[in-house]
Structures are given as C-alpha cells and as structure tokens.
Amino acid sequence: EVQLVESGGGLVQPGGSLRLSCAASGFTFSSYSMNWVRQAPGKGLEWVSYISSSSSTIYYADSVKGRFTISRDNAKNSLYLQMNSLRDEDTAVYYCARTSTSTNDAFDIWGQGTMVTVSS
Amino acid sequence: QSVLTQPPSVSGAPGQRVTISCTGSSSNIGAGYDVHWYQQLPGTAPKLLIYGNSNRPSGVPDRFSGSKSGTSASLAITGLQAEDEADYYCQSYDSSLSGSSVFGTGTKVTVL
Questions:
Q1: In sequence order, what DSSP letters do the residues of B6-28 get, joined into one string?
Q2: A67: burial class by Cβ within 10 Å (0-12, 13-18, 19+)?
Q3: Using CA of residue B33, residue A98, residue B61, residue B88, what is the dihedral sign?
Q4: Contact call for A107 and B91, based on CB within 8 A
C-alpha cells in the first residue's frame, strides 16, 4: 500500500524549533518530488515547501523562507522539515504530499498530518 | 493570502448539480499551468479529485468533472450525494512566486 506517515509534531514555544519527518512506503520514494503543506486550525491549505527527487531543486513559501529547511534521505525513504524560529502563526497541521508526473504534478498521495502548536 | 479565489460556500439538494469556481490570473491559471482539485472530508487529509484540469484519478466517480478556461477553472458535481459534503480546494502554480504551488481559498459544499 502506498503510504506517507508524518511524525514529530507537538507543542513548542515561540522562537523554538521542531523537526518533522515523513516516512514513505509502498513506492519508489527516490523517484518522486515531495512537498510539505500546512493547514491552520479552521483555515485553508497553504503550500510550504518542495524538494525534487534528487534534492537538487528546493522551493519555499515566502512565509517560511529563511526559517524552515526541507530535506530528504532517499536511502531511508524519508522526508524532513526542520522548523526554526517558530511563530504563533506556524500553528497548523502539517502534511507531506507526493508530486507525481503521471498526474501532471498534482499532489496525488497525502499523509494523515501531524499537528504543530506554537504557544507559550 | 491566496492568489486563487473560490466562493466560501455552495449548497445543493441531493441529486442536484453544483459548480465551484477557481479564479486566478495571468501568472497562474492564465499562464497555462494545470489546475488540480482536492476534496477534504471533515477531519481527514485532502484527497486528489481532479488533475490536469479535467482528469479523474482511478476510483473517483464520474459525477466529478473539471474544466479550465482563460484565468479560471471550475469543478462540477452532478447528482450531489450526502457524502460529497466536504471542503474543496483548487491548486495550481504561479510564475511570480518562484516555483510555488498555490491553493485556492477553499469552498465548503453543503448537501441540504
């Protein structure tokens, strides 16, 4: 079964750091680009970051640029998001999502999400 | 603030047809980028519903259809069913945002 499972969420104080992980299974992880997408409580979806299959291309939303770092380990079938200098407005459910060329670069597989709460 | 605008809500009775618009600009939909649609049932992760403007992934009922014209796209649901009550989001890319994906503001579909 094709699956993405996020972990690493939790409660952190403003200015703190957190590292999210996304474990992939059921497909050849190293062949796919990946993304992080977040959803604040009661709000819509916001794309956060993109990484290509070989890590050669990386993009960030302006709202997290300079604070978040996306990375991957193809040998471990894992995607990561290092979040530093966290702010209240970073509170959200964070999803990892696969980009597939067979669906015109749509996000065809999503994880269940992990909740990040930034609060003092 | 999203660059793709959707109506906050639409509603319809069972069996009716509803449409959701996604309005962009010349730097995203109008630039020729594909539009994708996602369905998010309450308390769950989003699910790909339509890709490449009008294509359905395997398993998605043909009650769902998508189209694109100019700087806008639309999602239509025909034969509305109770289980279609969910949030729907469009998504595309924007050339003014350095490779960024962009999501629409989201639309809540209510089955009366």
A1: --SEEEE-TT--EEEEEE--TTT
A2: middle
A3: negative
A4: yes
pLDDT at B57 over 90: yes
Q: Tell me how close the Cα of B45 comes to any Cα of chain A, in angstroms.
A: 6
CB atoms within 10 A of CB A50: 22
pLDDT in tens, B64-108: 999 999 999 999 999 999 999 999 999 999 988 776 899 999 999
Cβ-based interface (< 8 Å): residues of B facing A: 2, 34, 36, 38, 40, 44-48, 51-52, 55, 57, 87, 89, 91, 93, 97-106
Q: What is the DSSP letter of B57?
A: P
In the predicted structure, residue A63 carries a pLDDT above the cut 90: yes
What would the mean pLDDT of A28-43 be, rounded to a whole number? 97
Q: Please, are residues A48 and A68 in contact by the beta-carbon 8 Å criterion?
A: yes
Mean pLDDT, residues A64-92: 98
Mean pLDDT of B21-35: 96
Query: Which of A47, A105, A106 has the CB atom closest to B102's CB atom?
Result: A47
Q: What is the pLDDT of residue B3?
A: 86
Cβ of B46 within 8 Å of Cβ of A108? The answer is no
User: Strand A92-100 to strand A106-110: parallel, antiparallel, or no bridges (unpaired)?
Assistant: antiparallel
Residues 6 or more apart from B35 whose CB is under 8 A from it?
B22, B29, B50, B53, B66, B68, B73, B90, B91, B92
